[in-house]
């Protein structure tokens, strides 16, 4: 299936209104939206048709927009995981060099700070 943006009446440009509604953002008037075509596998087409049939989406554009939003979210999550893993590696190296403290000592220090902050 090749997907293209559905033709719109020439007197109404829906893209600017859609962007304003979806993202609460005003586009500069000179920003053009170029039509794009994509080729889908039969499995991808089935997924899109199932989503449309479910009633959750009213058109293919909504499905693509949601998929792209989820892709961005996944990319941000993967970046966060990489950053956390790097911090864990640094902490493990520090512990190997004897720069850390044991868990009981850490909990005692946290409790002491907590009680100091709550004393009147």
From TrEMBL:
GO terms for biological process: regulation of DNA-templated transcription. Keywords: Toxin-antitoxin system. InterPro entries: ParD, ParD_sf, Ribbon_hlx_hlx. Transmembrane segments: none annotated. Pfam families: ParD_antitoxin (PF03693). SUPFAM superfamilies: Ribbon-helix-helix. Coiled coil: none annotated. NCBIfam families: antidote_CC2985 (TIGR02606). Belongs to the ParD antitoxin family. This is Type II toxin-antitoxin system ParD family antitoxin. It comes from Limnofasciculus baicalensis BBK-W-15.
